[in-house]
Design goal:
This protein is an alpha/beta fold. It has a single domain, classed as Alpha-Beta Barrel (Aconitase, domain 4). Helices cover 29% and strands 20% of the residues. Helix 4 links the parallel strand 2 and strand 3. It is globular and about 45 Å long. The mean pLDDT is 94.
């Protein structure tokens, strides 16, 4: 599975309140949440995202509460994947549940805001097209790719539980 898009760069310790403010938790509609994604950090973030874009961040991305609204907001605004130095453990589970791929990479400091990158989830290669450089990370496991391709865990179960 290949994902290609423009980078939106964030720092360390981006918490779930930064991703989606608590006042918007009255909805579980991904597109509605996406309109407010990252607005406490960058009020124009959701308007600057094109479908397929990628968030790149530092350490401890998705820390804070266990709300599933955070990855829903990210996916709802059109972001196709998140790369960070590290993730909060609860963010892993919630991202998989809704079909949002994520990768850990020590090379995020080498990637700039606005760069165009391509992620090959199968091989774990991140190509920085803008800079002409490649970075390696762990491959995204096949079964997680199938969950992402299915649109999340519930759709995956509906599709594969019968087999």
């Amino acid at each position: 599975m290949i994902i290609k898009g423009k980078v939106h760069k964030f720092s360390d310790d981006i918490n779930t309140d930064d991703i989606i403010a608590a006042k918007y938790l009255v909805s579980t509609d991904a597109q509605e949440l996406g309109k407010h994604c990252m607005e406490t950090i960058n009020p124009n973030f959701s308007q600057s995202v094109s479908p397929g874009d990628i968030i790149v961040a530092g350490r401890n991305f998705g820390c804070g509460s266990s709300r599933e609204h955070a990855p829903l907001a990210i996916k709802g605004c059109g972001v196709a994947a998140v790369i960070a130095k590290s993730f909060a453990a609860i963010f892993f589970r919630n991202a998989i549940n809704i079909g949002l791929p994520f990768l850990e990479s020590a090379d995020v400091d080498k990637i700039n805001d606005g760069d165009i990158i391509e992620i090959d989830l199968s091989s774990g290669v991140i190509k920085n097209i803008t800079q002409g450089k490649d970075y390696r990370t762990q491959a995204f496991p096949d079964f997680l790719q199938r969950i992402v391709e299915s649109g999340g865990l519930i759709n995956y179960i509906k599709k594969y539980a019968k087999k």
